[in-house]
Amino acid sequence: MVFASDVIQAIERIAPPSLAETWDNCGLQVGDPSSRTSRILVALTPLPEVFDEAEETGADFLLFHHPLIFGGIESLDTGSYPGDLVSRAIRSGLTVYAAHTSYDAAPDGVSVALAGALGLGGPLEVVAPRGWLRKLVVFVPEDYVEAVADALSDAGAGEIGDYTHCTFRTPGTGAFLGGEASDPYLGEKGRLERAPEIRLETVIPAHLIGRATEAAVAAHPYEETALDVYSIEGHPKGCGYGRIGMLPDPMTPDRLVDHVSERLGFPARLVADPDPGRRIERVAALGGSGGSFLRQVAASGADAYVTGDIDYHDALLAESLGLSVIDAGHAATELPSLQPLAQRLAGLVDVPVEVSRVQR
User: Fold this and answer.
1) Domains of the chain and CATH, by start
2) Using 50, 70 and 90 to split pLDDT, how confident is the model at 204?
C-alpha cells in the first residue's frame, strides 16, 4: 500500500524543496497526504486534458512541473483557471504536486535532460549554481568510525569535486555522565566517564542534511549522538540552472537550429546571431525561460545558448554579448525532463508511473 505522503517523500529526494526559489510554489498543491496512491501521471502543465487523461487511466496522483497554484489564494473562482482544476481535483480525490524550480535546480533536473536530448557531451558544467553546503561533525567511538563514515557517504555526504568519501578525523576524549534513566553504551550511569572518540567531519549538501543526520544516528552506538551542523560557503555539486556541454561536431548557427528542432521535435528559432559564420562547439542549455541568465551564459564562454522565452530585449543583449541564442520554446525545452523524472520516481515507489501524452 502506497500513500501520497510516500510519493511526496520520493519526489523530494529527486527534487529537494530547499532548492526551490522563494517566489515559487513547489510542493503539495491539492490533496490529502494520507490518501492512497495507485497510479501516478507526470505532466508538464496542469491542463484540463491532463485531468481527462488521469480520469481515463485511473491516475490519482498528478505530478506537474508547473504549479497549479502559484501565488496566495484570496478567492477561488471554480468557473475559470486555475480554480476549475483545483475544484476538479478535490471532487475527484486527486493529489496534485508541483516540482518546479526544485526540479530545475536539481542535480539531474530539467537542464540535464535537455542537454542529453541535444546530444551535448560532458562533463556538463552548471550555468548558475544553487543550493548550500553544510559541515556535519559527529563524535564517534573509535570502533564505529568506519560504520558511521560509510553511512554518511551512502546518504550523500563527503563529495568534493570528483572525490567521494571525504572526511577529516581528529582523535580526542569524550566525557559524559549518564542520568538515572540512561543506558550508556560505555561505562556506567551515575558516574562521569571518559572515552576515546574521533571527531568525524564531512561536507554535505544542505538539502541532504536530514537524511545524513538520520543515517549517522542509526549507525552510531550511543544512546544520544553528539552531532553539530555548520553553514559553509559553496554550492553542492551539480545543483543549479542550465548546463554547458560540447556538441559532437562543430556547427554553424543555422545548422544548430536545425539540430535543435530535430532533436526536440519542435521548431526552434535563431533569435540572436552576432556572427553567422562562426563554428559553434560549446553550448549552454537551460529548460524553460532562460532570458535572465544571458550574462552568466556569456561569461561561461559558451558559443551558443538554447533556451525558451527569449524576448526582443533579451535578443539585443545576447548579440551585444557575442552570444548566439536559439529560442526552442518553453515547453519544448522542458518536456525531455519528464521521462527521466518518471523513471526515477518509479524506482522509488511501488506503483505505476506514466508520462502524460499532453505535450505542453
Assistant:
1) 4-102+337-355 (3.40.1390.30), 110-129+240-328 (3.40.1390.30), 133-232 (3.30.70.120)
2) very high
